Amino acid sequence: MERTLDATLRAPDEPTVVAEARKRLDACDKPPPRACELGGALAARAPFTQGADTPMRGLLAALCERCPSRVNACAQTVARALLDTAVGQAPNIPELQWSLEHAGPGTPAACDSIVRLGLAPAAQASVDLPPTVRTLLDGLVSRCASADLLPLSVLRAAAAQQGARAPALLTAASAKPVETAPVKPDQLLGAQPAFQAFDGDPLTGVPVSNARRGTRWSADGALRAGYAPTLKHLVGFRVRAQGPGSLRAIVRTPKGVGLNDPEGGFSFVNPTVCQFRGTGEWETCNPAAPLVDVDAVSVFPESADGKLLELEILGAR
Predict the structure, then answer these.
(1) What distance in Å separates the CA atoms of residue 261 and residue 218, rounded to the nearest whole number?
(2) What is the Cα–Cα distance from 224 to 268, expressed in whole angstroms?
(3) Cα–Cα distance for residue pair 161/71, rounded to 1 Å
């Protein structure tokens, strides 16, 4: 098999050589590792710009559809594109869609790259996601979602953070309505007396602008409302505050995906799910996508005299 593929690399324009390689490959369910390792060289001899239906491109597709992820040229193309787009290189979406379509046994690894290098950064409040990454995600996410290869918590958090800028993410993250109600948190950390923001009395509240900025500020903010166990669903908020601010959801993710909470011992992402004006009146916030596996909601004030009068977190356990 390896010698046959080597021959095509030496004579990519020789139809009989390519046809013989394809014949042998079609008869081989599991090509040897060395044959799979030639996938990268084969891709270089069959650039997508020359067409997706050339005999050499067909040979590459057949090889990818049989090779494991660690030596799968199509899966590697997707992973490499994620690194390239992170530094601003525009993706070739048709070529990447072709690669993902033909990744075969490498499809889970390719989608895992999309989760770790694309969706996880897209779901973080502090990440200024390059438009090139957003374009790549919008072009590829539906394929992985239809194969059920995207963790729902990460997908929906990314859709909530990116909103209308990534319509394909919103489509993939859409969900049937669930019955929800205000759910009081199980644990309150940060500014005190924190319970007064959840006591149903808008005349009390808690000052949040003078909360101490400790080492966990980026995760906990001025006030952290935690849930144990996590909220299965979070769909919106009602907030009454003095002074503007934002809310971030701490969404648990598979181990190693996104950020790490060393004290809690879990991985997470933290999309911004509400921007409130803080006029003293009730405001309603609905994230662009409903969230799942929410560990906590954190409050981030944006004024020197901010006060959280009352917060309702709408969800379901």
Answers:
(1) 11
(2) 15
(3) 34
Length in residues, the chain? 317
* DSSP element (H, E) containing 237: strand 233-242
Taking CA 221 as the corner, what is the angle to CA 220 and CA 225, rounded to the nearest 5 degrees?
55
Q: 234 with 314: CB under 8 angstroms?
A: yes
Secondary structure of 128-149 as H, E, C letters: CCCHHHHHHHHHHHHHHHHCCC
Both tokens assigned to 219: 């995760």
Q: Name the pTM for this structure.
A: 0.91
198-232 CB burial, b ≥16 within 10 A, e <16: beeeeeebbbbbebeeeebeebbbbbbbbbeebbe
H-state helical runs in the chain: 2-10, 15-26, 33-37, 39-45, 55-64, 73-86, 93-101, 107-114, 120-122, 131-146, 152-162, 167-173, 217-220
CATH topology for 181-316? Jelly Rolls (2.60.120)
210 confidence band (pLDDT: 50, 70, 90): confident
CA 194 to chain centre: 32
- The arithmetic mean of pLDDT across residues 279-289, rounded, is 95
Residue 248 and residue 218: Cα distance in Å, rounded? Answer: 10
What sign does the dihedral 183-186-189-194 (CA atoms) show?
A: positive
In the chain, what are the domain boundaries?
Answer: 2-173, 181-316
